[in-house]
Amino acid sequence: MSSSSPPTSNGGGGDHEDEWVWNEIKAEARRDAESEPALASYLYSTIISHSSLTRSLSFHLGNKLCSSTLLSTLLYDLFLNTFSSDHSLLSATVADLRAARQRDPACISFAHCLLNYKGFLAIQAHRVAHRLWALNRKPIALALHSRIADVFAVDIHPAARVGKGILLDHATGVVIGETAVIGNNVSILHHVTLGGTGKVGGDRHPKIGDGVLIGAGATVLGNVKIGEGAKVGAGSLVMIDVPPWTTAVGNPARLVGGTEKPKVHDDVPGETMDHTSFIYVI
Amino acid sequence: MSSSSPPTSNGGGGDHEDEWVWNEIKAEARRDAESEPALASYLYSTIISHSSLTRSLSFHLGNKLCSSTLLSTLLYDLFLNTFSSDHSLLSATVADLRAARQRDPACISFAHCLLNYKGFLAIQAHRVAHRLWALNRKPIALALHSRIADVFAVDIHPAARVGKGILLDHATGVVIGETAVIGNNVSILHHVTLGGTGKVGGDRHPKIGDGVLIGAGATVLGNVKIGEGAKVGAGSLVMIDVPPWTTAVGNPARLVGGTEKPKVHDDVPGETMDHTSFIYVI
Amino acid sequence: MSSSSPPTSNGGGGDHEDEWVWNEIKAEARRDAESEPALASYLYSTIISHSSLTRSLSFHLGNKLCSSTLLSTLLYDLFLNTFSSDHSLLSATVADLRAARQRDPACISFAHCLLNYKGFLAIQAHRVAHRLWALNRKPIALALHSRIADVFAVDIHPAARVGKGILLDHATGVVIGETAVIGNNVSILHHVTLGGTGKVGGDRHPKIGDGVLIGAGATVLGNVKIGEGAKVGAGSLVMIDVPPWTTAVGNPARLVGGTEKPKVHDDVPGETMDHTSFIYVI
Amino acid sequence: MSSSSPPTSNGGGGDHEDEWVWNEIKAEARRDAESEPALASYLYSTIISHSSLTRSLSFHLGNKLCSSTLLSTLLYDLFLNTFSSDHSLLSATVADLRAARQRDPACISFAHCLLNYKGFLAIQAHRVAHRLWALNRKPIALALHSRIADVFAVDIHPAARVGKGILLDHATGVVIGETAVIGNNVSILHHVTLGGTGKVGGDRHPKIGDGVLIGAGATVLGNVKIGEGAKVGAGSLVMIDVPPWTTAVGNPARLVGGTEKPKVHDDVPGETMDHTSFIYVI
Amino acid sequence: MSSSSPPTSNGGGGDHEDEWVWNEIKAEARRDAESEPALASYLYSTIISHSSLTRSLSFHLGNKLCSSTLLSTLLYDLFLNTFSSDHSLLSATVADLRAARQRDPACISFAHCLLNYKGFLAIQAHRVAHRLWALNRKPIALALHSRIADVFAVDIHPAARVGKGILLDHATGVVIGETAVIGNNVSILHHVTLGGTGKVGGDRHPKIGDGVLIGAGATVLGNVKIGEGAKVGAGSLVMIDVPPWTTAVGNPARLVGGTEKPKVHDDVPGETMDHTSFIYVI
Amino acid sequence: MSSSSPPTSNGGGGDHEDEWVWNEIKAEARRDAESEPALASYLYSTIISHSSLTRSLSFHLGNKLCSSTLLSTLLYDLFLNTFSSDHSLLSATVADLRAARQRDPACISFAHCLLNYKGFLAIQAHRVAHRLWALNRKPIALALHSRIADVFAVDIHPAARVGKGILLDHATGVVIGETAVIGNNVSILHHVTLGGTGKVGGDRHPKIGDGVLIGAGATVLGNVKIGEGAKVGAGSLVMIDVPPWTTAVGNPARLVGGTEKPKVHDDVPGETMDHTSFIYVI
Q: What EC number(s) is this enzyme filed under (chains A, B, C, D, E, F) (predicted)?
């Protein structure tokens, strides 16, 4: 996996890393276009013809999320303008691309993730919706939310706050509520719900710490805290706080691991994740 | 939430209420168009340009559910004709809109629900499919069923009977079988299955009473009866009858609450729902 | 159900049976077109106008899975060429059609399945993606995988090996990992995950024997073996081997049935399935 | 050509004739669908599935004239509402269909004309634009005008008044100005201009009498009068009045025929037109 | 027509005028949207939602000229980038808008011209194709040329040089060859050909002076010079030089007017054009 | 222009030449894709990804001529099947491509002609319509005719017989009637009409000999014979026979040249055409 790292990587990443990843993506797309002429048109229109990752991603999302009443040109404009107005969005995108390469063994290239991962695309579109929401442009943020839910079957309320280095693996059926907060380097499998309980309105959804891993089909309800590095087993129902570096499994969930601090799972390129067997699903 | 009620509401609703809600929707859409020019085209084409809620909804569903082999004009016609031939459909639509406003704290306006809630749209399209099924127009009912399942990831057999005041919240992954019956004022979260067991053919799916609440990811199997006002916990697997005003949780489910009769949850505008914490997910 | 069998059926099927099923499909479509003029255009374009099941299916999949950057004509070509180059694909298609007719009481005709069953369509498209993957045409296989996941919310890694006579019922949310293997005559309900655990890369997904039945929402994780004729209950979490003709239920799953050998569930046309009540969901 | 006449035709036509023509069209379309399965989908969606000629025509025009910013559903609605509000539009449509059958030897059926004649379709859409103009809905009339000019390359100002029984043969490049008036039973070939001169604004375009025939590429300029039954030669440039039953040819045009009164060319079903050889082009 | 002039107009125009015209267009579109809700969606998406004339025009052209193999997003980008890289393009656009308002009595507003005039739109797209040609990006210039010819039936070779203040009235069928040069403030009616003769390659097309007027259907062939302020009659065939302020008419053309110098026809807002009657066609 | 000839060309052409031209086209498209990334997607989808000229052309025509009611996949099938069933169609295509390269100085490559020349594309689609007509599949031939007339503004009756080596230059507005016959190596400019006169039905349209050249806007009417190598001047109106190697000009046309036999204008690669100056327009 050394090929997925820039030659002189420093922890902070930044423009240099963004540029390196974009060059990798274009090189991958060119190789694929060379080997598979039937796909070349797709690869040129989505990647190779673009001058930047921001443009490529805006183009791809505009064409993915458009409908007969929300034109691709309008959405392309919206994505391009939003990404251009806040450069932290691009660095989050790059962190998500690296997360997929490092944590998902089925991810064979950055280009593969950029084009084909519905979880990746849903998160990028969500960040734009979130920024529009923060600017009090709620109607358009909700229209975008609706298109993401229709097209990717991923339902993230535009108000939800999401960190970077996120892997939404498979992604179908993920539901994340309005007051949820997700840290950095979090991995969430398909059918995961971060839902609310009881209170109408107010702060009612989970807070997910950095480096957390939530297995397929897990349901986390209420304003509970899932601590840094914690793990939630597939199919679990969690309505309690989970301490850092602890594992919760079962319906309802009980705590089964804990206290030991593993390595943060994306700071070492090429690491082998040591997931408890019943949690992770790829 | 007083703004979501007509000035002189009577329990029965009717044409007066339908008209009031439609006027609210148009006013909301106009406010949104004013504040967000990028969305104005969408709001005019889907809402403001139409002379009635029936036309607006038929137009929106026609454009949402069309494909290259099922044209939007054909579907628009089908929806318009069906809604026009049975006025009870419109009053069910209005009851569903009010249900979303009253029960979902994330629903900020009727227009938001009408345009963006895939659960709401899936239910409206289902009612049309159901009516076509009842008229023995099964092939077209099933084609519509298929489009709803593709576009919204909501799979309701056209034969299933569904009441009014329904909230399908988030909605992705909901599956409702052929002989299921759902009462009025029911709330169903995403990933809920009302499925069959054993018998091939025949009456084999759940019967859901009025005012029932079914949490995210719950699976209810077989011709069981979920009594009026009962609640089913998120992630539960229910294969037994649940008495009225009782709560079922767990996999397999056990009964945990019961007997106390709460207020019917939508007859008091602005009520605060008192949901058991592990059930409700928004 | 005798109408769904060719007059002189032999166990092996083959070209004779393929032709019989295709003739049935066209006859069904013609009857539906006759009775429902509003659907006739759809039925002619998808079925009646085609000279073979291969062409009809390639046309329908091309129009279902296309996007603005992956044209229907390109996909149609890809499907047609792949189906033509490997005739075993067509016999698998026919076996799947028969599986739907025999095992799903809601399936009223072959044409209904061909046109409307997202699980059926996802499996057919997957087989093409799998063949492209086997030919080392990975980028286009993954692009197809992505379209299937977007359009049908069914996520089957192109490397996964899938037998014939498969019923993916309802299908929304099904996720099947890279090294999974599925035998013949398997029935899988919606929201089922055949996922990996722990190991990054390598053989890490379930192996599903012939005639297995996996209930809605079940999660099977790791390189475990689900033996021939076994059953997995709805909502179960399985991380252990399940012996042949045995039933696993619960979260985590325990074994509850076993040893008795039922009839293989599709070799007797018109059989009544004797499913344990908590497993099957239609 | 007796097959193109109702069994008991009276000169006035009316609802009886409209119904007869619509039944003919459906019968023709059914015959064509029977003989050509590849076209059946098109014939069902455009003709056979519709309950009236008004609906069929509105559907066809909506799908022909739509664009990504003017949706087919919107145009369909506009056509349907306008045709429904003024029944004289339908009788003009029927007269135009009969004109094509009687005067154009290349017209093999009413259905052929309804579906494929761009001149016929442009005239029908123009009548709707004209009515909207008359209702002072100028912006939408001009938007429609623009779509007709783009799609059919026929440019008729919405204010122009056009009679019934019109044949625009081939039609490409026809331009008809704002204050032009065209009588009944007029035949106009392709590339014909009815244009203005000199005056800015005011009544500045030709007035075409009943039964006039204008050859291909002819240009008629200014507020001149082309008398009843007159003929204009192909390629002529006419800036003078042409008396009734007279022929004008040349660039600039001179009068060459005249005074003899032929039969009005559509009151005798099946008549053989006796056109001067250098005028008519089909 | 004073309403079509900025309050403090100076001959040179420039940014101030561009801004004034854009504000007029938006005000017109808002008035039209107010009065015609059915058109509001179209007007918002094409005009009102945009922040500049450049964006509005690029959006409109992208949606007009796109095809299934040349996406609207790609074309939008191409137009936007080209207009942004050369500000003289926008001032030519504004001059063309003013030309339509001043010279075409059927033009009721700037917005009408911007949205609906195929001649205006063809010229704007041509200027972009011409710039791409000048940058030696010939293949994309020719692809654009082809789309303009398909969509608007206007065929201008990308190498042709075209001034500003151009009115292509009706525009269908206009053909302008590779080495043609057109001055400023020229009016060209539909079906006009500026074609080549004899020589293969080389400078072989007409040179049209400032303020020239060419009537409908006129054909001008060869490297001839049509002098400043000259007029060419409708239907003429011109293969000779036409001196300034002279009129050519007939097939073949002869010179009939001359020497008197009229006012340049667009420097006085609101002027009444004094066209010789047989030339002009609107 | 030697680059447009195969190294070992023999007069007859045949498969060898077809293959050579297709290889040239792919090489041109690859060069263009290399130099212009924005166009690469278009070039790959239309040319580079295809295995033969027949497939590339069928794909391109299917996408050009499709509509919402005539799907691209259906048309692609129709073109592919028809081209495959009659190999003479392909050699006519190749002859037309060579005609454009040799006779039109604005044609810079075969790929340019294949993708962008509406006259070339209209002729190829016409040949398919003609073959369908000959097979008595009239309704679909006429539907195709209608699409060609809408999309390219070229109106060729499907019954008209057209040779090979045809150049329809610019092409907009060309109208060719039902009983017209066109020989080989004919060049026809835009706005040319080959029309009928007088007789209703029967053989009533022009017969055009080999190597004829018809200038822009010329109108030829009636069952007249234009002899081999003859020329018709731009804007002429011809209603008489024109002897071989003779030129007709004027309205009405008179004969002005004659008897001298020029070289057949496409048998010498790179020839310089010696057209009488008033005829030819490019």
A: 2.3.1.30
Chains that touch D (3 or more CB pairs under 8 A): A, B, C, E, F
Q: D242-256, pLDDT tens digit by residue?
A: 999 999 999 999 999
Residue of B58, B60, B73 to mutate for D, most D C-beta atoms under 10 A: B73
Q: Which two tokens stand for residue C215?
A: 């209930």
Residue D258: pLDDT band with limits 50, 70, 90: low
Query: Of A37, A48, A49, which is closest to F49 when you measure between CB atoms?
Result: A37
On whether the CB atoms of residues F170 and F215 are closer than 8 A, the answer is no
Q: B8-30: per-residue pLDDT in tens?
A: 444 455 788 899 999 999 999 99
Ramachandran angles phi, psi of E251, nearest 5°? -130, 100
Nearest to D111 by CA among D36, D200, D205: D36
Task: Report the C-alpha gap between F228 and A45 in whole angstroms.
Answer: 48
pLDDT value at residue F15: 81
Nearest to F79 by CA among F91, F65, F67: F65
Strands B181-182 vs C247-249: parallel, antiparallel or unpaired: unpaired
Task: List, in sequence order, every residue forming a beta bridge with E255; answer none if it has no partner.
Answer: E248
Task: Specify the pLDDT at position B197.
Answer: 81
Kindly give the residue spans of alpha helices, DSSP state H, lying in chain C.
15-35, 37-43, 53-65, 72-85, 88-103, 110-116, 118-134, 138-152
| Mean pLDDT value of segment C24-47 | 97
Query: What is the spatial distance between Cα C9 and Cα D96, in angstroms, rounded to a whole number?
Result: 57
Residue E242 pairs with which residues in a beta bridge? E226
- What number of H helices and E strands is found in chain A? 8, 15
H-helix or E-strand spanning residue D194? strand D193-195
D203 touching E (Cβ < 8 Å): no
Among F41, F45, F50, which would you mutate to test the A interface (most chain A Cβ atoms within 10 Å of its Cβ)? F41
Distance CA D47, CA E235 (A): 41
For residue D154, pLDDT beyond 60: yes
Give residue B183's identity as a one-letter amino acid code. Answer: G
Rounded mean pLDDT for each run of 10 residues along chain B, 282 residues in total: 44 77 98 96 97 97 96 96 95 97 93 97 98 97 98 98 98 98 98 84 93 97 97 96 97 79 36 38 46
Find all residues with CB under 8 Å of E159, minimum gap 6, and list them.
E130, E133, E178, E179
Q: Please provide the size of chain E in residues.
A: 282
If DSSP codes are grouped into helix, strand and coil, which group holds residue D68?
Answer: coil
Tens of pLDDT, residues C110-159: 999 999 999 999 999 999 999 999 999 999 999 999 999 999 999 999 99
Q: What angle do CA E204, F213, F147 make, to 5 degrees?
A: 95
Q: Which of residues 71-110 of A touch B (CB under 8 A)?
A: 74, 77-78
Scan for tokens 């509000």, then name that residue: D85
Residues B143 and B149: beta-carbon distance below 8 Å: no
Strand partners, D255: D248
Q: Give the residue carrying structure tokens 């806040």.
A: A86
Mean predicted confidence (pLDDT) in F236-253: 96
User: What is the predicted ipTM?
Assistant: 0.89
Q: What is the pLDDT of residue B279?
A: 47
The torsion region of residue A217 among left (phi > 0), alpha (psi -120 to 50) and beta comes to left
Distance from CA of C68 to the nearest CA of E (A): 7
Of A41, A118, A281, Cβ closest to residue C193: A281
CA–CA gap between residue C143 and residue C131 (Å, rounded) = 13
Both ends of chain D: CA-CA distance in Å? 18
| Higher per-residue confidence, E200 vs F60 | F60
